[in-house]
Amino acid sequence: MSFYRYILVLIALLMSLTPARGQIVSPERDKVLNVDSVKKAFDDAPYFGLYKDNYFIFGPSVGMKPTKYNTDVKFQISISQRLTKRTLPLGSYLYLFYTQKCFWDVLRKSFPMTDLNFNPGIGLTKPLFVKDRFIGKVSLILEHESNGRNGDESRSWNRISLAGNILIDPTMMIHGKIWIPIVDGENNRDLLDYYGLYQFGITYMTPTKRFGGSIILTKRRGWNPFNFNTVVELSYKLFNDENQYLFLQYYNGYGEGLLEYNVYKSQLRVGICIKPQFFSEY
Question: Could you please report the per-residue DSSP string of the chain?
Fold first, then answer.
């Protein structure tokens, strides 16, 4: 029971991290996205906060009859800790990152957690400005990812990632991430054939931030120009003064989790999502 209490405590903590009204420098308030206001927002932001989307979603496989074996819960907890009070050289900030992703077979006997992925990292993040306007940010991150298992089910790898987010206009953002991999896991030497080498995507959010959608494509290794892992996400804010969204995610491809990284999945899930302050990371 201690593990489940741990998960519930983490979820409760994340719910408490919902930003207060008036603290968010967001795309719909384009007039405040200048150098001084964004730097002040970074400097004044809490040291501990959200990193990627935090969600709890449930749903079946697509294209087959739903059963207790192909229907599950997927949840993600993602946080960041800023390590520097003020900017470092080149106007950057040093962060610790941690993301935990879990697949939970809640319809099966004993409710087994079938795959639990741990993804800590440390990196530099630099806000980007053009003509005194905030246009996004770039991050250089050293990451580790593993599933904490022994023997034949052990999976692990490391990577140096370069990620960028660029605001095209107040409602649309493009983002990309490329990595130098260090695949050291004995049982996942071919990980990049399925997990991929780089990703890119586009995110749209209405001016009120009530509704949003995104597409994320991750290119698997190989010469086939169409071998992508694809994620489509839709979100709808339940209450204007809260940071909680009704969330739908469709995953198609390989590498959704480390344990079965080489197994094709087509999964549709729906649930609740809590989003970070500026925009979502991927």
Answer: -HHHHHHHHHHHHHHHTPPPTT----TT-GGG-BHHHHHHHHHHS-SEEE-S-EEEEEEEBSSS---TTTEEEEEEEEEEEE--SS-BGGGBEEEEEEEEEEEE-TTSTT--EEEEEEEEEEEEEEEEEETTEEEEEEEEEEEEEE----GGG--EEEEEEEEEEEEEETTEEEEEEEEEEE---TT-TTHHHHH-SEEEEEEEE-TTSSEEEEEEEEEPSSS-TT-EEEEEEEEEESSTTS-EEEEEEEEEES-SSSTTTTS-EEEEEEEEEE--SS----
Rounded Cα–Cα distance for residues 174 and 256 (Å): 22
Identify residue 100 by its one-letter amino acid code: Q
CB 103 within 8 A of CB 75: no
* Structure confidence at residue 24 as a pLDDT band (50, 70, 90): very low
Evaluate if residue 13 carries a pLDDT over 60.
no
Here the tokens at position 36 are 């001084």
What's this model's pTM, rounded to 2 decimal places? 0.85
Residue with tokens 């994620």: 231
Q: Which residues pair with 158 in a beta bridge?
A: 144, 182
CA 265 to chain CA centroid, Å, is 18
Tell me the C-alpha distance between 80 and 86, whole Å.
16
- Tell me the residue type at 138: V
